[in-house]
């Protein structure tokens, strides 16, 4: 089956507008013409693409499978237009980065300010969450994740590691009576549905009957609780340019040689060819190299 880019462009417009009438207005077409084109496309596919209702349209199962590829085609078409208008050293457009919330807040948000100075026409869109987005389906352009990719179409562009350490606010640290061990601390950890994450499981394995004193499903909430003196927190000690460790104390507890956290920078092979994505990759790799040098000194 061969689908033309023009038909796919119209299909995407209907999806984004939410109705045939709204899409027709946005495209400058008659609604009857657009409806006919979509019917012809559905005939070529062999199945309906939209369920039509009083409130507009929604995608069928086959259309949902078609949507990610169509969105990527639109992005490449936009990138082709931009490449003709913008100088090679001035990449432009949106780049989506998926990352855990803690890294998104402490690293990517301030990183965006530095990137903007270098490439004012680039726009970062940070997708913060613990779930690993699917780069093959185009859910993001880049990913910073705690596990290496297993998909052969994904490239690990860089990685950085640091020891997992126990941190606490000075107010809580001063209340502890020495000597103390892991089981003597009030712990901050993960709430449902993230009890399976590595940091939580490390505490479950190290402390019999482990129950956190405070839990949250967002790392930024955990960090705020730690700063407030609620308890201790496990953190991979990776000192990047924007680190906020100065607000916390390392309690000096040894978790063993295998207690290491690693962050991986991942991209799909096809996305790496986009100049705007490559510009962000280069900037991120410079930041990670800065962090490695800072740790070595």
From TrEMBL:
<dbReference type="InterPro" id="IPR036388">
    <property type="entry name" value="WH-like_DNA-bd_sf"/>
</dbReference>
<dbReference type="InterPro" id="IPR036390">
    <property type="entry name" value="WH_DNA-bd_sf"/>
</dbReference>
<keyword id="KW-0805">Transcription regulation</keyword>
<dbReference type="Pfam" id="PF03466">
    <property type="entry name" value="LysR_substrate"/>
</dbReference>
<dbReference type="Pfam" id="PF00126">
    <property type="entry name" value="HTH_1"/>
</dbReference>
<dbReference type="InterPro" id="IPR005119">
    <property type="entry name" value="LysR_subst-bd"/>
</dbReference>
<dbReference type="InterPro" id="IPR058163">
    <property type="entry name" value="LysR-type_TF_proteobact-type"/>
</dbReference>
<comment type="similarity">
    <text>Belongs to the LysR transcriptional regulatory family.</text>
</comment>
<keyword id="KW-0238">DNA-binding</keyword>
<keyword id="KW-0804">Transcription</keyword>
<protein>
    <submittedName>
        <fullName>LysR family transcriptional regulator</fullName>
    </submittedName>
</protein>
<feature type="domain" description="HTH lysR-type">
    <location>
        <begin position="3"/>
        <end position="60"/>
    </location>
</feature>
<dbReference type="InterPro" id="IPR000847">
    <property type="entry name" value="LysR_HTH_N"/>
</dbReference>
